[in-house]
Design goal:
single chain, 347 residues, mainly alpha, Serine Threonine Protein Phosphatase 5, Tetratricopeptide repeat, 4 strands, disordered N terminus, cytoplasm
Length: 347
């Protein structure tokens, strides 16, 4: 700004009236000195200053345009993230997942390496007043109520998206943009984790929905510790729910891989150690006896670490007790095999 205020026109007028070459000057000793041509030098300086001022002005315009572009881009990112979160929550409430509803009265696996919870799955079958079984005990009133509730939730979600877009236009600088994005991601993560815990505690269909929900949000929260161990837990749930051996092995291996990455960053997480041990056990169910014995030591190591980090968690003690029982069973079986072998050799 100070450079622009220089009056170059006045300097040009002065240069026009100045002589291009000053007259010779006689020194006291009789020698004559001829001064250098100052006019040309001043013209060169003036042209250089004018060139610098023009470049500064253009640079200032480019910086201003770049700042405006960054603010617009930040506003668009905020709108897209908010819209994605609202759409994800709306879809999860409608429960539009490609998994068929399964009904089973069988209990969960009794393997010591599986999750500690077990019980019969809930069914949707009902019985009418006359004693006849119906395919669905849900009444028309319940369906209408659910439909009205979904429409109300959709309206609230749309209004939330519109509000988020209006708020995003009020951004002032990049610092405020980062604060808004961080706050938005934390709020969305908290809601996602609560919903994942609720679905994990439900029946088979809800566990499948919880797995798909976490899988859909992996790109956004792959660097969050609490998200990763819940994703691994969902892999463990899917390993229990499927009957195909290859699918069981695939789910267990994928979940174990997720926690191997997580433990490199968060070695002090009791949940990461606990579910890593469970997934190691599930994966060993499809391996050789020697490999299962080796995995048993890894299982106990991580369960002990989980108890050390979170001694108030009863599930870790339950898993450790099941492991001790299984070890005793294996040792007893090994002794029986040795006695039978010795008996046959003696015969």
């Amino acid at each position: 700004v100070m450079v622009n205020s220089v009056d170059f026109g006045h300097l040009e007028e002065v240069l026009q009236v100045m002589p291009r070459v000053l007259p010779p000057v006689e020194a006291g000793d009789g020698a004559v000195y001829t001064p250098l041509p100052l006019h040309d030098e001043l013209v060169d300086v003036l042209e250089q200053l004018d060139f610098v001022v023009k470049n500064l002005s253009e640079l200032r315009k480019e910086v201003e345009e770049l700042r405006n572009s960054l603010q617009n881009l930040a506003a668009e990112i905020v709108c897209e993230v908010r819209s994605h979160l609202e759409e994800t929550q709306k879809v999860s409430r409608r429960r539009r997942f490609p998994f068929p509803r399964e009904r089973s009265d069988s209990t969960c696996s009794s393997s010591i390496y599986f999750t500690a919870s077990s019980g019969a799955a809930n069914t949707d079958d009902g019985e009418s007043e006359g004693g006849y079984s119906t395919a669905n005990a849900e009444s028309d009133y319940d369906r209408e109520s659910e439909k009205d509730s979904e429409e109300g939730e959709d309206e609230v979600s749309c209004e939330t998206v519109r509000t988020a877009r209006r708020d995003s236009l009020d951004l002032v600088n990049e610092d405020e943009t980062h604060l808004v994005l961080d706050s938005l991601l934390e709020e969305g993560l908290e809601q996602l984790l609560q919903q994942a815990d609720r679905l994990h505690s439900g029946d088979e269909q809800e566990k499948r929905e919880g797995f798909q929900l976490l899988l859909n949000n992996k790109l956004a929260y792959a660097e969050q510790k609490d998200f990763l161990w819940r994703l691994a837990r969902a892999h463990s749930d899917m390993c229990e729910l499927t009957d195909d051996a290859d699918e069981k092995r695939s789910y267990a291996a994928d979940g174990k891989e997720e926690l191997e990455i997580a433990l490199q960053k968060w070695d002090q997480s009791a949940e990461c150690h606990q579910w890593y041990a469970i997934l190691c056990g599930q994966l060993s169910e499809h391996e050789s006896i020697q490999k299962r014995i080796q995995t048993g030591y890894v299982f106990k190591e991580h369960i002990d670490k989980a108890i050390e980090l979170k001694p108030e968690d009863p599930q870790s003690y339950y898993l450790l007790g099941r492991w001790c029982y299984q070890v005793k069973y294996v040792v007893a079986g090994h002794c029986v095999i040795q006695n039978l072998s010795a008996f046959h050799l003696g015969c």
